[in-house]
Write a structure and sequence with these properties.
- The C terminus is likely disordered.
- Helix 2 crosses helix 3.
- It contains four helices and 14 strands.
- The radius of gyration is 17 Å and the shape is globular.
- It binds biotinyl-5-AMP.
């Protein structure tokens, strides 16, 4: 039986389910505590960005005790499991279908206190923002499927292999704040390998990566990133 999803607090409207879950976690809420909302007025992406959160979207945050470093990637895989065979994980935290963003993952936490909040926003049956895509499913139908997929992915031993099979950036032109290159797979630590123009390889451990489209545009529009680890 799933340990994720109980207890559950559902809010018709809130600023951010991650903010609510963080408060609960700090007060000792158990592993698996779930916060969902019908809409968010201040849905958060990474680095201060906004997550568009209309009714019809699946908006959830889970309290995760003793998180492992691959939590965000595991969550992306779980969303991809629910989204179907065509879904790809765009390292480190997006799920794309046909190159369009269907879902995003935001992990926030207090590693020293042994917890994280795993926030997931999925375009379910809502009208997606321009350039994004919706799964076309009811959020309440997708939720139990996603919790079950997460339960499996959080303890799976084949995470890196699964990621390599869903890698949206493999052989794609990518750019980050301090460079440009071609996606060369996921390394054994969960970092993104990128082949540079001179044939060398770098590994990105965290941060932002732009997918350079054929037209030279980027999606989604993102900002800075920390420098890569040079090999
Ligand atoms: C993310 O950030 O993708 C993480 C999103 C996490 C949202 C969930 S909802 C439940 C929980 N509570 C919260 O407050 N947050 C979490 P990032 O990689 O920074 O991407 C943000 C960018 O995605 C924005 O700047 C837009 O370009 C794009 N975006 C915003 N809303 C979107 C949507 N609904 N669908 C697709 N793309 C979106």
């Amino acid at each position: 039986m799933s340990r994720l999803g109980r207890p559950r607090r559902h809010l018709r409207e809130t600023g951010s389910t991650n903010a609510v879950a963080r408060e609960l976690a700090a007060c000792g809420a158990p592993h698996g505590t779930l916060v969902t909302a019908t809409t968010q007025t201040a849905g958060r992406g990474r680095q201060g960005r906004t997550w568009t959160s209309p009714a019809g979207a699946l908006l959830l945050s889970l309290v995760i005790r003793d998180p492992d470093p691959l939590l965000s990637l595991r969550a992306g895989l779980a969303v991809a499991d629910v989204a179907g065979a065509g879904a790809r994980v765009k390292w480190p935290n997006d799920v794309l279908i046909g190159g369009r963003k269907a879902a995003g993952v935001l992990v926030e936490g207090r590693p020293a206190e042994g917890w994280a909040v795993l926030g997931i926003g999925v375009n379910a049956r809502n009208e997606p923002p321009p350039g994004a895509i919706s799964l076309g499913v009811e959020p309440e139908t997708a939720l139990p499927e996603l919790l079950a997929a997460l339960e499996a992915r959080l303890s799976a031993h084949d995470t890196l292999a699964a990621l390599r099979g869903r890698d949206a950036l493999l052989a794609e032109r990518v750019a980050w704040a301090s460079g440009e290159g071609t996606g060369a797979g996921i390394d054994d630590g969960g970092g993104l390998r990128v082949r540079l123009a001179d044939g060398s390889e770098t590994v990105l451990d965290a941060g932002e990566v732009h997918l350079l489209s054929a037209a030279g545009r980027t999606f989604p529009p993102t900002r800075s990133s920390p420098p890569g680890r040079r090999r």
